[in-house]
Amino acid sequence: MSPTFRALSVRNYRVYATGSLISNTGTWMQNTAQAWLILVLTGSGTALGVTVALQLLPTLLLSAYGGVLADRFDKRTVLRIMQVAMAVPAAVLGLLAVTGLVQAWHVYVLALVFGVGRALEAPSRQAFVPEMVGPDVLGNAVALNSASFNAGRLVGPGLAGLMIAALGGGVVGTGWVIVINAATYAASFWALQALDAGRLTPTPVIGRGRGAVREGVRYVRSRPDLVLVLTCVFFLGGFGMNFQITSALMATEEFGRGASEYGLLGSLLAIGSLTGALLAARRAVPRIRLVVLSGLVFSVVQVASGLMPTYVTYAVVLPLIGVTVLTMATTANAYIQSTVTPAMRGRVAALYIMVFIGSVPFVAPGVGWVGEAFGARAAVVGTGVAAGAGVLLTTLWYLARHRESRSAVRELAPTLGWRHAAGTHVRARRPAGHGLRLRRGLREHERVGPRHDRDAAHRR
What we know:
Layout: H1 11-42, H2 45-72, H3 75-98, H4 104-132, H5 138-166, H6 171-194, H7 212-221, H8 224-240, H9 243-254, H10 259-281, H11 288-306, H12 311-339, H13 345-357, H14 359-374, H15 376-403, H16 406-411, H17 413-416, E1 418-421, E2 424-427, H18 438-445, H19 448-459
Antiparallel strand pairs: 1-2
């Protein structure tokens, strides 16, 4: 089997991935139909923004508690319950639309309820993957999850648009699309039910008690490598995931294009995202250096996109942005899943989701303000510079902190030109033009976290 899809050789993961792909496609169908529904009902862009915010807000507020659920209960059971919890509001909204009874406040309330279910489900979904596959294909499995999400992102909106148009383009058409999404959760539920329990490796659950969320935060703070990864995710999520704003500004204000050209930009970005996830799937072991380097490359490409002279040249650059963002996100997720203590996996996954998705609402208003006050190009270039500066400064902090310890100096030897022998550090001769190479330093640093966990497990 191709290295890109080697996790599919595991029967349990293959079944799980099939259900997830169907469910992801349905979710993107509903996102499109729900947006069209609220616009048909209100004709207001503000109402659309409120709907999106209500659906995303629980991710920021409740993901940490979803992480506690993932660590405290059987993840497979949590996932099955949450499939029902997300199917019910989708079914209710779809039926209200099909019968013509739907009102805007129905959309608001049910979007919020749906968001609560997704916020509580996501950490268990992230942390469940290591229970299905071994460490040798874990990174590949995580990357294929991202590929599945982006495949649904490519197919779902198009299917939803065709269905809505075929059914008249009104409220009833959106309702049938949303009802179909409710039905797709049955596929995900069936896949979870069909897994061979004997081939799963469940993580021991934690006991009841207060302070589980704080314990997860303390664990991350004790792991500088995780702090580095999550901080990079924050900057790339906050400044790199505002494509709806930056692409809309560039398409309409800078290039004077319409809705169809704006939609094409979204498709090009999704193609790049899918490509990035598949490229990450080919890597056997997730590396911190790839998180950092993809973040820095994103910064450069984002700045370049803001300087493109025409709509066509801007569109050509967008797939590269999708590749870099998804390479970073997928590698970061795989690194977290493969290096954290199993008992902490759900809570750390929840923090990953919070900083990646929850950072968007914090930064988005500022990006919109910059675009309105200084122009679309300033918003695009500014997000690229901010993301790159955040990743670079965090990486320098990480290297500086580890340089203080003896083991860190030994691990930094390839970068700084030191030789380590018999407990001493001797300065090696540096070749001409040799500068600080973050990539080589991080190659050794990325093993710090996993080793710390193994040492801690040995002491226990």
